[in-house]
Amino acid sequence: MPTAILSVLFFLSALLYSSVGHGGASGYLAVMGIVGVEPAMMKPTALCLNILVSAIAFWRFYSGKNFSWQIFLPLAVTAVPMAFIGGMTHLPSYFYKPIVGAVLVFSALYSFKSAKVLTADHSLKPVSKWLLAVVGSILGLLSGLTGVGGGVFLSPILLFSNWASPKVVAGIASAFILVNSMSGLLGLLMTGGKLPFELPIWLAVALVGGFVGATYGSKRLADPMLNKLLAVVLLIAGVKMLGIFEYMANYFW
User: Fold this and answer.
1) What contacts 66, CB < 8 A, 6 or more positions away?
2) Cα–Cα distance, 133 to 203 (Å, whole number)
3) Cβ–Cβ < 8 Å for 157, 62
4) For the chain, how big is the Rg over CA atoms in Å?
5) What pLDDT score does 251 carry?
6) Burial of 94 from C-beta contacts in 10 A (0-12 / 13-18 / 19+)
7) CA–CA gap between residue 78 and residue 144 (Å, rounded)
8) Where are the domains of the chain?
9) Which segments cross the bilayer (predicted)?
10) pLDDT grade for 249, boundaries at 50, 70 and 90
């Protein structure tokens, strides 16, 4: 496993994602997919890095008063148990890779779209706690199954529905990712999941990247151009995980 290459890429992912309150799981999954890490190691690695970086992001955004307990609690109450169930579920490679690929493609589209939303004005709307609970349960299960924290889905829902401002969305997303990732990792470990030997190195670089990114993002919104560049990486990784490159190669050659 190319530890040095992954260390650099994990640092950059943590830096970029933490600036918008995310733990970076879709970024970690993307680079691992591109490098060719085996699926059995992708999920636990992404969850561990997610926990560390989202905790830093939550601390920075919460300290800056960019958070809403009224929105977060209904989401978390249903998301945490569903993330645990998802973490206990070990999908075979031929199921896991397409699902993660679809998540990465969605993440790419969201990154393109959010580059515009970050600079837009928002007229906030109230939201039902029951609706938030339903959203939380669905995203929690998806989080545990794939190793993402769910923030890449929660953020566009909150933003595009105008339920919270961009910075508050970042604070809520960081807390949501944190509790989901902890629950998902617990479920994974209880069913025999293994952690990679190189994990301490990757945690160290993610710690630095997450701290710098979260400190920057909690004070000012992320650069829209970074979101667009990130979207390109996610799209390439998603297409690779979906096997589209292999299909095209076989079809044309």
Assistant:
1) 167, 168, 170, 171, 218
2) 31
3) no
4) 17
5) 42
6) exposed
7) 13
8) 3-252
9) 39-59, 71-88, 94-112, 132-156, 168-189, 201-217, 229-249
10) very low
- Is 90 exceeded by the pLDDT of residue 131? yes
Question: Residue written as tokens 């309150």?
Answer: 21
> By three-state DSSP, how is residue 102 classified?
helix
**Residue whose token pair is 């906030």:** 124
Q: Name residue, tokens 């933490």.
A: 18
Residues 6 or more apart whose CB falls under 8 angstroms from that of 84 comprise 144, 183, 184, 186, 187
How far apart are alpha carbons 17 and 29 in whole angstroms?
13
Rounded Cα distance between 240 and 231, Å, is: 14
- Tell me, what DSSP letter sits at residue 125? -
Number of helices followed by number of strands (H, E) in the chain: 11, 0
**Cα 172 to Cα 16, 54, 135, 229, distances in angstroms:** 17, 10, 14, 24
Q: What tens digit of pLDDT does each residue of 27-67 get?
A: 888 888 888 888 788 889 999 999 999 998 899 889 888 89
Amino acid letter for position 47:
L
Give the C-alpha separation, 102 to 237, whole Å. 10
The residue that leads in pLDDT, 165 or 217, is 165
